[in-house]
Amino acid sequence: MPLYSYKHRADDSDCAHAPYFEWEQVARDWPLTSCPFCGAPVERVLCAPAIKKRLFNSELRDKGFTKLVRVDDGIFENVTRRDGEAKYYDRRHPETAPILEKTIKD
Hints:
There is one protein chain. The chain has 106 residues and is an alpha+beta fold. The protein has helices at 57-62, 97-105; strands at 3-8, 20-24, 42-45, 68-72, 75-78, 88-90. The chain contains two helices and six strands; from the N terminus they run E-E-E-H-E-E-E-H. The strands form two sheets. The protein has a three-stranded antiparallel beta sheet with strand order 2-1-3, with no helix packed on it. A three-stranded antiparallel beta sheet has the order 4-5-6. The protein starts with a strand and ends with a helix.
């Protein structure tokens, strides 16, 4: 559900959520006309949408994340690996990760 921003019309409102608050509601619902907390008149405020950029594997690695892609049942490939890290991980036996690298290549 979208999150909408609202502003109290009176600048001197005693509401704990003044002057702005966010309210989650279905897009087809009418905008709020009064504060759900104190009943004071409010108006909807236009805000920029939150747009997320999709990150490449190298950007994920640089930010400190690890991305594992499923290769087989319980076996995952580390696509953001750094030097010295194993390429494959077995979920049931993590200590066998370096051995799996040879097994899957053959």
